[in-house]
Amino acid sequence: MGKDLREILLKFKNGEISLEDAERLVKLNYFEEIEEEIKLDVNRRLRTGIPEVVYGKGKSEKQIIEATLKLAERNGVALATKIENIKRVERKLKEYNLNNYIVKINRVGKTLSIRKKDYKIKKFGCVGIITAGTSDIPIAEEAIETLNLMGINYIKAYDVGIAGVHRLFPYLKRMLSSKVSCIIAIAGMEGALPSLVSSLVDVPVIGVPTSTGYGIKITPLLTMLHSCSPGLAIVNIDNGFGAAVFAGLIVKNLLREVHD
Length: 260
What we know:
By secondary structure, the chain is of the alpha/beta class. The chain is built from ten helices and eleven strands.
């Protein structure tokens, strides 16, 4: 296992290892390999502020669990998304010794998170999460688990789409009163909700089209991309993870500016 990058640099600074040894250890520290099948980018958090997340689709239960566990071992916490058979993963977890970890299965969001018991996540900032309908909730839950990984607080409001637009306004008022840094608006069908939200608030809105709806599934994506409402950025279909990462980076950079 490669040593932690910070530890390597400190040892070099203190003269405990040579430049050649430091260079060799840094090269070894780029990734970790699991049975020649998965190569984990264990230092992504140091480079980008966001740890690598395991994309579960197409992977076996064993691959998902071992990759997530290895990342948690190195980073303190880890997340797997888009798990196709979450119940099988839940059963498979019983074969592993996880006494030193806190394991959370989100069946709705199809995610697995593993955290060391002694690893604390400091919460900061706030993001709003809105779904147009209840069918969009799985993508919202994926976004929530991603925000949890990054330590970002959130306020959520489900089933407040334009079919009953009066339901939306109290939640928007609450989010703005709580000084959210941005709002994630998730919608399928015709995908009109993000445009409406961005026309009513003075914070960035991240639109997430979902595959919910009749007929052609790219309709909400095209609607959002063709919005005339400013302040709206769009991620790909069903990409709750990508939306949450973008939102988390907005929060982190805003707070950095305040403290600088």
